[in-house]
Amino acid sequence: MDDDVATASTPRIALGSWAFTFGPFEKAPWSWERFLRYTAQSGYDGVEINGFRPHPHDEDYDSAAARDLAGTISGLGLGISAYAPDLSATPPGIADPAEYLGRMASIARFCDALSITTVRVDTITPPPGPQSDPDGAYRRLVSTWQASADLLAEHGIELVWEFEPGFWINRPSQIRRLVDDIGRENVGILFDTSHATSIAAHGARQGVDPELLPGGAVGLAELVGDRVRHLHLIDGDGSLHNGETSEHLPFGTGEVDFPAVLDTLGDSVARLAWWTVDFCFCPTTETDAALAVPIVAALRDRLLERRAEVAR
Questions:
Q1: What Rg value do the Cα atoms of the chain yield, rounded?
Q2: pTM over the 0.85 mark
């Protein structure tokens, strides 16, 4: 990439640590230390922390231990793109809001100690969502995330929601509506290219009369692009892992048109500090995650060069 394109705002590339703890790695998850060594040796700039044990869980770290963790990560030349906490015990549309906010307070303390500025969340509840009082559950979800965003804003942290076919609120029109209803400056969408394909091209787990968009993931990028605050890159073909959420496939083995998706997302992702590679559930991660670094770097450089050409 030319020097005039490679600026301080060039997105760095991170690897999500859940790739080595979920799915085929669940019975023998990689240790955090092994994951860090692999990530550094593979040429990544940073890590995205999976907050599910045995990887770092915010409630296991006081401030001093969290600062030590930060030192270990930075000592390998790595940064941290985001924290994806384990909130599985507190679905935000169902759980006591005070309990959810208690977890958020712990998460904020952890993020402060590690200088993390992005927290990833999802709705946790499978589709079609709470059936006894769906409207009430939606209102609770909105108000819980509003309160969470307000708490995190005091720490300079953004809340990003990852939509998935396997979780409640997975129709394209609902995705944009939810973020707009929350209406907080520090709340945005986490755009995962495999999930976008499953939802917009295949209508995965949307039930009767699914919403399909022209161009699939490109169409969804057009719909929600100005709300995107975080990016997960991985291939996909609409298939589901155990019938639940999107399979994440090695680059070049699915149907995602990455240049078209990234061009459509445009400045919303070109200006991000990080792009995260997400190999969740992929059995060949140990091989393919290392191969992904130059692929993602080339996609990033292409987008930045095109944006620079437009600006000239």
A1: 18
A2: yes
Running DSSP on this structure, what letter comes out for residue 154? T
35 contacts 47 by C-beta, under 8 angstroms: yes
Say if residues 14 and 48 touch (Cβ distance below 8 Å): yes
- The answer to whether the CB of 120 falls within 8 A of the CB of 72 is no
CA distance 145 to 130: 17
Dihedral of the alpha carbons of 117, 14, 221, 173, in degrees to the nearest 10: -60
Long-range contacts of 294-299 (CB under 8 A, 24+ apart): 294/43, 295/251, 295/252, 296/13, 296/233, 296/251, 297/13, 299/233, 299/258, 299/259, 299/262
* 281, 234 contact by CB (below 8 A): no
**Each residue's pLDDT expressed in tens, for the chain with a length of 312 residues:** 444 444 447 999 999 999 999 999 999 999 999 999 999 999 999 999 999 999 999 999 999 999 999 999 999 999 999 999 999 999 999 999 999 999 999 999 999 999 999 999 999 999 999 998 999 999 999 999 999 999 999 999 999 999 999 999 999 999 999 999 999 999 999 999 999 999 999 999 999 999 999 999 999 999 999 999 999 999 999 999 999 999 999 999 999 999 999 999 999 999 999 999 999 999 999 999 999 999 999 999 999 999 998 888
Q: What ranges make up the beta strands (E) of the chain?
A: 12-16, 46-51, 79-85, 118-121, 158-162, 187-192, 228-233, 240-241, 245-246, 274-277
Within 10 angstroms of residue 150's Cβ, the number of other Cβ atoms is 15
CA 299 to chain CA mean position, Å: 18
Helices (H), 185-284: 193-200, 217-224, 258-265, 267-270
Please, are residues 102 and 144 in contact by the beta-carbon 8 Å criterion? Answer: no
| Nearest Cα to Cα of residue 296 among 239, 236, 235 | 235
